[in-house]
Amino acid sequence: MTEESVNAIVSKMKKFSVQTCRNIPFSGLTTLGVGGTIKLVIYPVTARQLLLVLKLLYRLKVKFMVLGKGSNIVASDRDYDGVVVVNKASGVTFRGRRVVALSGTSTVTLSKKLQDRGLSGGEFAACLPATVGGAVVSNAGCYGQCVADVLTGVKVFYKGRVRYLRACDCLLSKRSSLFKACQGYVILSATFRFSRSDVQSVKSVVAEMRDKKARSQPLNYRSAGCVLYHDKVAVSRLLDKSGLKGFSVGGAQVSVKHAGFVVNVDKATSADIYSVIKQMTEILRRDYGLEPKLEVELVNFAKEEYDFFSGR
């Protein structure tokens, strides 16, 4: 992306009253804390600003990606010659059991609002360090609940247009969706339907889930959550069985608390993180004949680095 095009985008953003920053490291925008420098970062804070930004970038044919909390991202150490849109457009609307949340809404915020209204089925959202948009993309979930259980539809930006997709159109599967498999979709908002319960019951379930999370996950280190998954097998148990806990490359380590997590223990690079995930994948292939899938999203890596995880 040329300096001229960057200047043009920045100028346009000023007219929209949208904040921009140049040369921002991915490490400050992701929970893993790794990654190269981004040419330009844009911070829309309302639904209108987000849509204006997306339309402009699409019209200019600029390479861009949208981030929420950056909790499921492994960004390459290479510099990103494009635009990252950090989606801060948040808000929740309640219509009885039907709930509409803007994609930049924190899942923790959504959970608190559900608890206050005694709505059940979304307790898992309290355990996700994510935004609503990111949670939908990866069909996030835990402890027997996931997005697919409660999603009824999404509003998306795709190929220059705003569209509405029903949940059945989103191809939700274990930790995946249409949006993860097919590039170009940006989620603007999501509509959910929850069950009626009472405030104390919902809060009790949330507390129980959070306690399980604190006991089983390495919350004292930077991570991107579980990095691999399989449709039928809990890969973390197999990695534990293979003695991979504590395996490290540079500053990246397979968590000694949970073998599905790769943690940044000492100024890891994305190359360190990638090498550890690659080793985990090789062991699952070699020892168990499994083809695990990436739960994290690799950003700005070389084609051959992506291809390794597709089995090519």
Structure description:
The model has no long low-confidence stretch (mean pLDDT 97). The chain is of the alpha+beta class and 312 residues long. It is built from 9 helices and 21 strands. The chain is globular and about 55 Å long. A hairpin with a 2-residue loop joins strand 11 and strand 12 (161-166). The protein has helices at residues 3-16, 47-60, 107-116, 132-137, 178-181, 199-216, 235-241, 270-288, 303-309; strands at 19-25, 37-43, 64-67, 73-75, 80-86, 92-95, 98-102, 119-120, 141-142, 145-146, 151-158, 161-166, 186-193, 195-196, 222-226, 228-229, 248-249, 252-254, 261-264, 293-294, 297-299. It starts with a helix and ends with a helix. The strands form 7 sheets. Strands 6-7-13-11-12 form a 5-stranded antiparallel sheet.
